[in-house]
Amino acid sequence: MSPLAIRIGALVAAVAMIVGAIVVRGKLNDRRSERNAVLRLTCATELGDVCQDFADTSGAKVVLTVEDAGVTADKLTGASESPFDGWLTPGPFPQLVQEARRAGGRPALIDRVSKPIARTRVAIVMWKERAAALTAFCKGAVAWTCLGNAANGPWKAAGGKDTWGTVKTALPDPVVTASGLVALGAGTVGFVGRADVSSTELQDNDAFGVWLGDLARAQVAADVSTMLAGGPAIVDAVAGLEAQMTPVLAAAANAGDVNVIYPSPVVTADVVLGTVASKQSARLAELLEGKAGRDPLERAGWKVASPSLPRTSGLPDPGLLAYLRGAWRDAA
């Protein structure tokens, strides 16, 4: 090989090395930029502590917004752009928004919804004496149908004592909260006996209308903490999510006075992440769907993986849940 060819070859090799170094450096800078990017995360109220834990421990720069899932959903239904990179919530609220925008002829805002990241069961906490009376009245375990049929009526007619007054129940507001809508969905599945129910079927079911109306009118603004602090005079039964109720019960001196009931069929609230099409969203999904997101959920009592729970949530589809939000609003 001639000296000129050798010099040209050396020059080409040197240029290739410089270009390669620039490309590698560019990729490293891109990765560094992605890792240092501010990630905007909106979380449902039920996951506020979980998301704060994630923000504190993930190593990412997280701007956190915590608000009720129904509030976020209503904002997104008519919004022109997304206020977040990711939305973490129990229940299929991102799917609900996707369907609402599609039905309204609006372009999609949420590009992707994750598979369930964690889950917890829907439960009813009830004073033991009340639960015993209702069990006898129901001729079996306390179920959603029987509880709703007894709600807002006199306890004496439901096997209880006249001095107990009316049957008072409490669900988190299904119009506003994720836990409330999941609980109402669970109750509907319990009443109908299956999850694949349509809004037309419910509209034509007079018994369901009465059940829903009685449950809505029996509604007391109370959670488990209020229940345990105020006693049976405040509320007889409270529905909600196991992950939220368990820590309260564990710390209560009178927790032995109540039963925790998991009505059949068991229904769960599944935590999902809705994201938009961006690098920040992809980074947020990588973190929240991985160990950085799962560990805070486990620490808060959510089941990341549990063979004892159903493989699916057991809830009706998002369209039916949207119908139930409106039906509850009209009945309350």
Description of the structure:
- With 332 residues, the protein is an alpha/beta fold.
- It is 49% helix and 15% strand.
- The chain has 14 helices and nine strands.
- It has helices at 3-36, 48-57, 69-77, 93-103, 128-138, 144-150, 178-192, 199-203, 206-217, 224-230, 242-251, 279-288, 291-299, 318-331; strands at residues 38-44, 61-67, 86-90, 112-113, 118-127, 169-170, 237-241, 258-261, 268-275.
- Strands 1, 2, 3, 4, 5, 6, 7, 8 and 9 form a nine-stranded mixed beta sheet that branches.
- Helix 2 links the parallel strand 1 and strand 2 (61-67).
- Helix 2 packs across helix 13 (291-299), helix 3 (69-77) packs parallel to helix 4 and helix 6 (144-150) packs across helix 9 (206-217).
- The N and C termini lie far apart (91 Å).
Keywords:
332 residues, alpha/beta, 9 strands
Please state the overall shape, judged from the principal axes of the Cα atoms. elongated
Strand segment tally: 9
SSE class: alpha/beta
Mean pLDDT: 91
| Number of helical stretches of at least 4 residues | 14
Give the gist of this structure.
This protein has helices spanning 3-36, 48-57, 69-77, 93-103, 128-138, 144-150, 178-192, 199-203, 206-217, 224-230, 242-251, 279-288, 291-299, 318-331, and strands at residues 38-44, 61-67, 86-90, 112-113, 118-127, 169-170, 237-241, 258-261, 268-275. By secondary structure, it is of the alpha/beta class.
